[in-house]
Write a structure and sequence with these properties.
Layout (H helix, E strand, L loop, with lengths): L10 H12 L3 H8 L3 H8 L7 H11 L3 H14 L15
Length: about 90
């Protein structure tokens, strides 16, 4: 069986889908977790990442775990780098 490569998506895309599934507005979520609506909007548009604190707030309000939200963020960030840009870096220690 051939392994399929899946390109990570920004956690804001997952958040947008979750809000849509719950029929919840960005503003309603922002108010519920005590952040500015602008913060949620910037995450949904991929302009802002998810911090550990935000991951905990999302986990409490929406379910899943803080680690789920942080994994989405980490996978996204790592996908944004070009491996070739770091090929010249050699290990310092064995």
């Amino acid at each position: 069986m051939k392994k399929q490569h899946v390109t990570p998506i920004h956690p804001g895309e997952v958040l947008k889908d979750e809000l849509e599934n719950l029929n919840l507005t960005q503003s309603a979520l922002a108010e519920h977790i005590g952040v500015l609506p602008k913060t949620i909007n910037e995450i949904c548009r991929g302009k802002r990442g998810i911090s550990a604190e935000m991951a905990i707030k999302f986990a409490r309000a929406l379910g899943a775990s803080p680690q789920f939200w942080l994994n989405l963020q980490n996978n996204w960030e790592l996908s944004q780098f070009e491996e070739k840009d770091y090929e010249g870096i050699e290990p310092i220690a064995a």
